[in-house]
């Protein structure tokens, strides 16, 4: 089994404007006889799932998404060799026409590898490439229901620090608007996609938060 999730750590990188992450001891074995950590974090911390309610008024919350939509076969599209800081990833960078040749449908889960997971925790993480909305729309038309990326977002990211009141991915952000607006899901901050082939069996397991716009998730691939 391959873990595709970023560990949740005190002070870790988050999307600009999201709540900062705090992980601290609340109880200790020496003092209290048991160890318990106190967690303070946003619903889009680390590797996480965006539900439609994240950007769509009245959109589905995560607890209304069946778990079987978050597991199954995935198509892995690799643009890491051509990905550049803050540049779009389109059909050319993904060799999309070659990858889709002869396909009338794609698996419900599509993962985009940019290679930007290697910068997670560094300032350059904010300079990730972003997906052209035309690619997302093409994949949606072929049956994609879940889009996963190994970067902070499939759309461009600004540069505020955590907790500074950033607006997050507004409805006008094209890839979020296309995928979440179509009732799909987005998974962000994946890692280790280079360990997968062009097809993989994936499981995405978000925290069961009630009425959630999103939640941190453990994402795994079966070898």
TrEMBL record:
Domain of life the protein comes from: Bacteria
Pfam families named among the record's database cross-references: Cyclase
InterPro entries linked: KFase/CYL (IPR007325), KFase_sf (IPR037175)
GO biological process: L-tryptophan catabolic process to kynurenine
One annotated GO molecular function: arylformamidase activity
PANTHER family: CYCLASE-LIKE PROTEIN 2 (PTHR31118), KYNURENINE FORMAMIDASE (PTHR31118:SF32)
Name listed for the protein in its UniProt record: Cyclase family protein
Lineage, top ranks: Bacteria, Bacillati, Actinomycetota, Actinomycetes, Micrococcales
């Amino acid at each position: 089994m391959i873990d595709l999730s970023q560990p949740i750590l005190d002070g870790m990188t988050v999307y600009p404007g999201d709540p900062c992450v705090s992980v601290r001891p609340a109880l200790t074995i020496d003092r209290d006889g048991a160890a318990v950590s106190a967690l303070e974090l946003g619903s889009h911390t680390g590797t996480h799932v965006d539900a439609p309610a994240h950007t769509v008024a009245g959109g589905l919350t995560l607890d209304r998404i069946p778990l079987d939509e978050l597991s199954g076969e995935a198509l892995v599209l690799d643009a890491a060799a051509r990905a550049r800081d803050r540049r779009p990833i389109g059909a050319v960078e993904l060799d999309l026409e070659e990858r889709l040749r002869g396909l009338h449908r794609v698996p419900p889960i599509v993962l985009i590898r940019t290679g930007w997971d290697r910068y997670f925790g560094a300032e350059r993480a904010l300079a990730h490439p972003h997906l052209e909305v035309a690619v997302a729309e093409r994949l949606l038309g072929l049956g994609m229901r879940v889009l996963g990326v190994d970067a902070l977002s499939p759309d461009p990211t600004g540069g505020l620090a955590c907790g500074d009141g950033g607006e997050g991915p507004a409805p006008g952000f094209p890839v979020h608007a296309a995928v979440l607006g179509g009732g799909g899901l987005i998974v962000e901050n994946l890692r280790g996609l280079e360990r997968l082939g062009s097809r993989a069996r994936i499981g995405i397991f978000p925290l069961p938060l009630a009425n959630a716009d999103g939640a941190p998730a453990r994402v795994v691939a079966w070898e």
